[in-house]
Amino acid sequence: MIAGTASVNAPLPALRFSHLAELVRNSSARHADRTAFTTCMPNGMHGSLSFRQVDRLSDAFAAYLREVLGVKAGARIALQTPNGLAFPVVAFGVFKAGCVLVNTNPLYTPAEMEHQLRDSGAEVLVIVDLFANKLEGILERTALRKVVVAEVTQFFSPVPRAVIRAVMKVWNRVLLPVRVPHDRLAQALAQGEAAARAKAGVLATYVQGQGLDTLAALQYTGGTTGVSKGAMLTHGNLLANLEQAYAMGCSHIEEGRECVLTALPLYHIFAFQFNLLCFYAAGGRNILVPNPRPVQNLQRAFDNYPITWVSGVNTLFNALLNEEWFTAFPPKHLKAAVAGGAALQHAVAERWRRVTGTAIAEGYGLTEASPVVCFNPIAGTPRADSIGIPVPGTEVRLVDDAGHPVAAGAAGELVVRGPQVMQGYWQRPQDSAQSLREGWLHTGDIAVMDADGYYRIVDRKKDMILVSGFNVYPNEVEDVIAGMDEVLEVAVIGVPDAQTGEAVRAFVVPQGACTAEAVRAYCKRYLTDYKVPRSVEFRRELPKTPVGKILRKALRAGGAG
Amino acid sequence: MLTELETRLLGVMMMLIMLGMGASLTFKDFRIAFRKPQGILVGLLCQYGIMPFLAYVLAVALGLPPPLAAGLILMGCMPGGTTSNIFTYFSKGVLALSIMMTICSTLVAVALVPVLLEFYSGLRGLPSEYKIPAGNVAQILVVLVVPTLIGIFLRKWNPNVGATIELVGGLLGVVVILFLIVTWVPRNHVLLATTPASAYAAAIGVGVIGMLLGYWLARGLRQDARRARTIALETGIQNGPLGVLIVVLTFEGEMQQNVLLIPVLYSLFIVLTSSAVTLWFRRTTTREDLARDQAKVPTAPAGVQAGKT
Fold this sequence. Notes:
heterodimer, A: alpha/beta, 9-stranded mixed sheet, 16 helices, B: mainly alpha, 13 helices, globular
C-alpha cells in the first residue's frame, strides 16, 4: 500500500449476525411492541406494523414460498413495489426462506422487466397491483411460476385502505383489475401461516447450512449506463456493510428511539441498506413514503412523525429547501441527514445546515459495495464536498488507467476492497472480471485524497468533458451554477464541438428570471474560461432516475442536437 | 321551500364541510400564510370589498325586488366556498393561496359579514322584514367555526380520521349543490320558468363579474398572473350552501322561497361558469409555461463566442 493514495480506516467491527434472517428475528424479539414501519400517504392516511407483526408476517411469507409454492433455497424471488408495508414483509420473508431477493424497480418498462426477470431467473414475483398489468405479454417468456400481487395500502386499516383505493380507482384511474393469474399477498400470507402451523419448527430449517457466504440478493445496476447486471450480494456483504455504516452513525443512533424518513425507494441499495437494514437492526421506525414526488408529498410525514434521520440525494434535499412549509418549520427532532447517490452540492449542504441546524453527512457508495464505501463520520463536522473516509474494514486506493496508484493529491480512479464488495455480476464472468481485479472493485469514479485522508469525488470517469485537452468535471461547474439564487436545478454535460472537441453545456431549471448570459457571467467569476458553459439551455425539469439522480446520459442523448 | 328534514340535513352537511376544511389544516399553515400576508390581504380585499359592492350595484342596476335583492346581497357578502379550491387545483392555480383565502375569509366572516350585510341592506333600503338579522348570521358562523376547529384537532389526533373527513368534506361541497338541484328545482320549476331574466342575470353576473374584477384588482395590486387567476376564482366563487343555510334558518314559507331564489340560482350556475373559466385558465397557464420555456432557450449560442477555449 502506498502512502497518500490509499488508506484503510479502522478494523471491521464484529458482525452481530450471521444471516439476515437472524437479524430480523433478533431485532423483532428485542423491540417486539415498537412500531417498525409506517406508510404515510400524501394526505396523511397511514398504516403501521410493529416489529412483532413484521416478524410474524415475514415468517408466513417464508412458509408460503417454501411450503405452498415449493420453491427451494437459493431460488430468486423478485420484489417490485414502491415503498410500503409489503416491502419489508416480503424482503424479510425471502431471507427467512433461504431464497435470494431480486429488488426490481416498479417503474420499469415491460422490456426492462423482462430482461431482469429472465436474467435473474426469478421464480416468484411480488408486484404492486398498480403495475401488474405490465406483465401481460412478457409473463410467458420468464421463468415465473407465481405472481403475487401486493398493494400500496397493504396492512392499512379497512377504512383508510378503502378510501385510498377508491380514490386511486375512481379519481386517478390507476387501479385497473389485474388480468394476469395471481395470488393476493393477503391470501398468500394466510396460506403460509397455516402451512407453518401445520409443520411446527419448519421455519428454522429453511436457513440451515446458510451463512455469511450465502447469496442474499441480486441487486441490479448499470441500468443508466448499459445493460442491467445483477450484483451478487451475500448475507456477509450486506451484514458487514450494515456494521460499517452503523459505525459511522452510531453516535447519533439510540437503540429503539429513532424515526427515519424513507423517501428514497427501498428497492434501491442505499435505502435498502441504510433505512431498512440499519434501522431495523437498531429498533428504529421507518416512515415509508410511496412516492416522494412532488416533494409536497412529504409534508404530512414531517408534520405527523418525530423524524430524527433523513436519507436522501441532492435533488431531494434541494426540493425540500424550496418548500416553505419545510424551511419555516424545519423538523424539530432531526439529528442527522445523510446524502448519497449523487454529488451533494455546496449550496444545498450550506442551506440545509442553516435551515435545520444539522449537517448533511455525505457518503459514497455503489451497488457493487452493498453500497457504502466512504462516509463522513456523523460525530465530527462533516466536511463539505467530501465523501469522508473509508468505512471500517475497507481499503480504498486511487489508481491511473494502468492500475498503478497515483501520486498523493492527484486524481485517480477509486478502487475498493473490503467485506462489502460483491461476489461479481450474476452469470456475467466477463463483466465481473473487468470490474473486480484481484479483489479490487473498480468504481469508474475519479477521486482525490486530501492530506488528512478525506476523499473527494471529482466526477464519473465517463462524464468527464474534454475541452481542448483540458479536463472539465461537470460536478464542479454544476456546483458553481447551483449557487445562483435564480437556479433551481442544474446539470452539465459535454457536447461535440468543431473547435474544441467537446464544449460544456449547462441545463438549468430556473426559478424566477434567469438568462443564459447571467449564468455565464456568474460562472466566469468562479471558473477558468474553458470550464464556463459555452451554451446554457433552460428546462422545466431535468431527467432523473427514480432515486433522483440526474440522468446526464438522457441529456446527452436528447439535448446535444 | 325546504322541509324541516331538508333544512336539518343541510345544516349537518354544512357542519361536515367545515369539519373537512378544518381537517385539511394545521396551525402551522396559518403561521406560514401570515409570513407572506400580501396575497391573502389582496384576496380578502377582493372578497369583502368587491363582491358585496358588486351585488349591491347589480341589485340596484337590475332593479331587483326586495326579496331577490336580499338574496343577492347575502350572496355577495358570503365568504369563499370550498369548491373554489377544487377549481383552483384543476386550473393549475396556486392551491395553497386558494385554501388559505377560503379559510381566512371564513374566519373573518364572523365579524365582517353581519356588518357588511347590515350596511348594504340599509344602503339598498330593504324593508325590515327582508333584513337578515346580524346576530343570526354571526351565530351561524360561530357555530361553523366550531367544527372547523374540531377538524384541525381531529387531524392532529389521528391522521387517518383527519384525511377521511377532509375528503368527505370536499365531496360534500358538491353533494350539497346536487342535493339542492334534486330537492329544490323539480318542486319549483314553475317558479323558475316565471323568474324574470334580471334574476338570472344577477345570479350569473355576480359570479362572473366578480371573477373579472378580482383578477384586475389582484393584477393592479402587483400579484403575478397565476396568483391573480387564483384570486379571481376565489373571489367569484362564494360559499353558496352557506348562503342557502342562512336564508333557510332566517325566513319561512313564501318569503323563504323568494329570498332563496338567488342563492340557489347562484349555486347552480357558479358550477357551470367556474368550470368554463377553469378550462380557460388552465389553457392560459399551460400556454404561458410553454412560452416561458421557449423564450429562455437560446436559439443559437450567439454572443457566447466570447468564451475563450
